[in-house]
Specification:
By secondary structure, the chain is mostly helical. The protein contains 14 helices and nine strands. It has three domains: 48 residues; 84 residues, DNA polymerase, domain 1; 198 residues, hpI Integrase, Chain A, CATH 1.10.443.10.
């Protein structure tokens, strides 16, 4: 540290410490004071960095949470709505007026523990894990914006949740439902859903320009949501689903009498199917009148997936049909259902058999099998 000579002949010392890229300085007459100050400020800077305490703008939690939600505008409307619900209902009442730098891991852990133990809230474990996920994302966002160096939520662990049993109809329930609704205007839609595994939003948003009869497939690139039609899928990627025999016959039948750009319409054969009305009124009534186990429309998708696993057993093909972002998601829910098909397939593989080649076992190729009509 070089001294600087003042006009009156005295020496001065000006130590410099960089914090977040900005230089902080102070003038001292004695070198020892300058050294002591620099050591103290440097130590405090390093300590704050280790603890996650900011040296920049220290904002309140509610302001940060609102900024974080705005940064998620590219996500699906349902996802944003869910995030807002978690922030407004659970996080703001507890952390709203606190500064980010003052919120510790202990406080967050205590908050989560209260959610788990409070009987009045009746919050399920899965919901608590969603709250933990949002907390982690909000504080990680604070780190990105350099309001803190380290997130106090990093050490939070999810609560162990027992895997939910997959809800679906067996073949007899499917047959009973379709038989009872054979004369129902929406019979085609039900059969199509059970034959393709598409989401309701993908079905009611399907237009004829995406039905490629010559190629035997449909292209999923739109989805109907509670907020209206969107020209993108849930996974943000277009995908193709090839026709099953039932799906093909359904599409051919509807094409002959169609008066709309949409494949499936209301009873006037023109108007688009209402997402929420169909879910909560039309389908629910059809299930109740059929006398089968009560399920939601989304469970027609798991019914298809379950049937596919048992008949075909190819988890990778199923993942592509369902439009999952990764095979891991499909495996998590359906892998155990493919065990019987895999066991059956392995019994048919024998190198010692005469004229045996892997390609000779045509019944192992998933698309060599066709689905029998569920109806």
């Amino acid at each position: 540290m070089k001294p600087k000579k003042l006009k009156n002949g005295d020496l001065s010392y000006r130590p410099k410490v960089y914090i977040d890229g900005k230089a902080i300085t102070k003038v001292f007459r004695r070198k020892s004071d300058a050294i002591a100050w620099k050591q103290r400020v440097t130590a405090e800077r390093d300590r704050n960095k280790a603890l996650g305490v900011p040296n920049l703008e220290d904002i309140h939690f509610d302001k940060l949470a609102n900024r974080w939600i705005k940064s998620k505008s590219h996500l699906a409307s349902n996802t944003i709505r869910d995030y807002k619900g978690v922030v407004n209902k659970y996080l703001l009442p507890h952390f709203k007026n606190q500064k980010i730098s003052k919120i510790s891991y202990g406080q967050i852990q205590h908050f989560v523990s209260n959610l788990s133990e409070c009987e009045e809230t009746c919050i399920g474990k899965s919901r608590i894990n969603k709250i933990i996920k949002v907390i982690k994302m909000v504080f990680s966002f604070a780190v990105e914006l350099e309001h803190i160096y380290k997130s106090p939520a990093d050490k939070l662990n999810n609560i162990k949740v027992t895997a939910k049993e997959i809800v679906y109809w067996d073949e007899s329930e499917v047959a009973k439902f379709l038989s009872h609704n054979r004369n129902n205007y929406y019979y085609d839609l039900y059969l199509f859903a059970l034959s393709t595994g598409l989401r309701l939003g993908e079905i009611v948003g399907l237009k004829w320009d995406c039905v490629l009869f010559s190629e035997g497939r449909i292209v999923i690139k739109r989805i109907m949501t509670r907020d209206g039609m969107k020209d993108e899928t849930k996974g943000k990627k277009d995908r193709s689903v090839f026709f099953s025999p039932d799906a093909l016959s359904t599409l051919q039948s509807r094409k002959e009498k169609s008066l709309s750009e949409f494949v499936f319409t209301k009873e006037d054969n023109i108007s688009q199917v209402s997402y929420e009305h169909f879910t909560y009124r039309v389908f629910r009534k059809a299930v109740e009148e059929s006398g089968v186990k009560k399920i939601y429309f989304k469970h027609l998708r798991s019914t298809f997936a379950t049937s596919f696993c048992k008949r075909v057993g190819d988890i990778y093909v199923l993942s592509g049909i369902l439009g999952h972002s990764s095979v891991a998601i499909t495996q998590k829910h359906y892998a155990h259902l493919c065990d019987s098909s895999q066991r059956e397939a392995m019994q048919k593989l024998s190198i010692k058999q005469k004229d045996s080649t892997f390609l000779a076992h045509q019944n192992l190729l998933p698309f060599k099998r066709s689905f029998n009509s569920i109806g």
